[in-house]
Amino acid sequence: MSPDHATPRPVRLTAADGYKLGALHYPAVGEACARLLVAGATGVPQRFYGPFARFCAGQGVDVWTLDYRGVGQSRPPELRGFRMDYLDWARFDLAALLDHVESQGRGPIWMVGHSYGGHAFGLLPGHARVQRLATFATGAGWHGWMPPLERLRVMLLWHVIGPVLVRSTGYLAWSKLGMGDDLPRDLYRQWRRWCQWPRYFFDDPDLPGLADEFAKVQTPIRAINATDDHWAPPASRDAFMQAYCNAPVERVTIDPKRQDMEPIGHIGYFRPQALDLWRETLEWLRNAHPKA
Questions:
Q1: What confidence tier does 105 reach under pLDDT thresholds 50, 70, 90?
Q2: Residue 218 domain flag
């Protein structure tokens, strides 16, 4: 791959509510056959998806990544006091990226989601413009789907460590725990609230119309989860994916030990050792989706 294609191009976007966002474009090598949005996980900056984006660009796909508001290149000067809604990431931020991508070139538009990225699709205005969605590590977030030890760790995070960090800094200082970028306080509070329910935000009585939004999705989906992903094991995926009730959903479960693979966990899907998964995903995006 030439240096021009190895180096992403900065893109500045403005969401419908006026918020300024930082994105990156990885131009396709040769003539682009498709356009791909990468919708990242909570607290994971877009630079983490660089190796995956470069791989896809090397296969002739134009790729865009994005930092949601409050994170990375879209972080305000001060997180303390920064107000937002967790759903803004889909309804405004990804929507702005989709509008931009649609205006760039030709060919089908695809999306690859990571964790929250799979949640975001059902919230995304104009999701019908996306021909295929492949998502890794998307689950319902409820601690009850997790193994016992991870369940204990998550409960400590929500009810002990998180509140202490938020009180002392004014935001969730995620970086102090080595878990990713810092997160706004409003997002932390919503995330913690939704994780108390088996079906995540679909069980929130304050969001009665959310299931109806997801029921409108008809885009083919491939939902890939690993058995060693303690935050989003296959059972958690299945609980969430029920909401995409009118879309053909293919559920793929990976067992790294049985398949002689490196451990995956919650974020290993996008590390270079997962190259075979990237190839399979890109092949699926390119080919017709089987009826579920």
A1: confident
A2: yes
